[in-house]
Amino acid sequence: MAQFGLVIAVVCSFLMPVAAARGAVFNVNSTGDAVDASVGNGVCATAGAVCTLRAALQEANASFADDTIQLGAQTYLLTIAGTGDDQAQSGDLDVASAATAGHTTIQGQGASVTILDGGGLDRVLDVHGDARVEGVTIQNGAAVTASNALGGGVHVHGGASLELLDCRVRDNQANLAGGIMNRGALVIERCEITGNEALNLGFTSAFAGGISSASQAAAGSAATMLEIHDSLIADNTAYVTPGGIELSNAGAALLRNVTVSGNTPTQIVVYEEAVTLDQVTVVAPADRALIAGSYDGSETLTIRNSAFSSPVDDACFIGTPGPMLAFGTNAADDSSCGFTVVAANLGLGPLADNGGPTRTHLPLAGSPLIDAGATPDCSAADQRGVPRPQDGDGVAGAACDLGAVEVPEPGAAVLGMTALVTLLCRSILRTRSRVASRWLSRCAGICHKRSIHRGGLQGEPLPFARDFAIRRLSPRRPGGLE
């Protein structure tokens, strides 16, 4: 834990500049793809006197201040061909190095309505500096040339940092890392990474259909840092394992309340990386859930309160030498992982919308995952935002469920009242409509009287109730997935 605390501190140093200057807010009013007419004058305006996403990003790149780009509920299609340019002049959307630009925030109106579409010309987003992107879908990117083969949707370069919030990254292609390539510091929250592909093009290894977080091979390069919370990595494919997520080359990674499902082949590969899998559900349709190895056995693989299902193959393969293992209470459908709970059928439902911003596998009534976890290792809520722990096995006393999802009493037709209020309030908060705001005013009052913390009722307001009181006086923020 001390090691990961240090990692988090380093990530924060990436994401929080010491002296941030308040910058401009660029309101994009055109879905066209055109460059800025006079880069650096502080005005987002093309030759046609409109503000495009590309022009706004060029202005942000020319400023040392912390600028915000606000998008509408529209599709922004990239149409200016070209690769190798790192100033957003053509091809992908480049966030400039922190040496020449401040922190850039790109705000959409929700991933279902604000779409950044690469059109197959280039990847969509190329991050050389510090950025935050929220409330968007990133799709149809392509990194498929010898000089541009990494990260079809997003590429985070060494020394750069990116927060991806309330997003979808889907249907992108690359030789390596179809969805996202991370060589810097990356935080992902409430996102779905789906349908991406690593192609066998011969330029480099065709690993990682969904995400690769791997440091540069060159000596002295900075280690990668990755955190993923409350998210889904599903239905990605690769020519070479893994189809889901690769974590390698002397970095550090944390996955908490994450579902990894249906990727081909293999869901997660860990090599030479300090990794923590905390309350993770992994479902492998025809291959392994986890492959882990190490050059010298000096890294630690920590797995807590997680569930691995692989009905066709062994759930795990731990190489020799392998990482040092630090396992809490976990479950698998065979003994290959060395977990404490082994059951032929983990009793997981199909990947579906079970509430919350991302899809999940819900433990069915009678599942051995229910109330089987170590409650001291529980987070306050599951992947959907439902409070943990809840009593789900009909026996007095609440305990944390294994995996990314917490369920109430078996056979219950609806969620418990506290969980229902939690999901309702959080969903309303994401919509930001006038009608929703009136409901949230009532909801926040209820939540102030009956707040939910680890499944109990206490006198302090819920975090999102406090957020609402603050955000009523703050500029409008983007919505989530819904």
List keywords for this structure.
482 residues; alpha/beta; 3 domains; 19-stranded parallel β-sheet; nine-stranded parallel β-sheet; 5 helices; 36 strands; 30% strand; globular; disordered C terminus
Helix content: 10-25%
Low-confidence stretches: 1-20, 411-418, 430-482
Largest sheet, strands/sense/barrel: 19 strands, parallel
Distance between the termini: 34 Å
**Which descriptor suits the 3D outline?**
globular
The tally of beta strands, per DSSP, is 36
Give the strand content.
Answer: 25-35%
Residue-averaged pLDDT: 83
What's the gyration radius in Å?
A: 22 Å
How many H/I helices? 5
Instruction: Report the structural category.
Output: alpha/beta
Counting structural domains, the number is 3
In short:
The chain is of the alpha/beta class and 482 residues long. It has three domains: 19-238; 266-412, no CATH class; 417-471, no CATH class. A hairpin with a 7-residue loop joins strand 33 (348-352) and strand 34.
Structure description:
Helix content is 13%, strand content 30%. The strands form five sheets. The chain has a 19-stranded parallel beta sheet that branches. The chain has a nine-stranded parallel beta sheet with strand order 4-7-11-15-19-22-24-26-29. It folds into three domains: 19-238; 266-412, no CATH class; 417-471, no CATH class. α3 (417-431) packs antiparallel against α4 and α4 (434-449) packs across α5 (463-471). With 482 residues, it is α/β, with parallel strands linked by helices. It contains five helices and 36 strands.
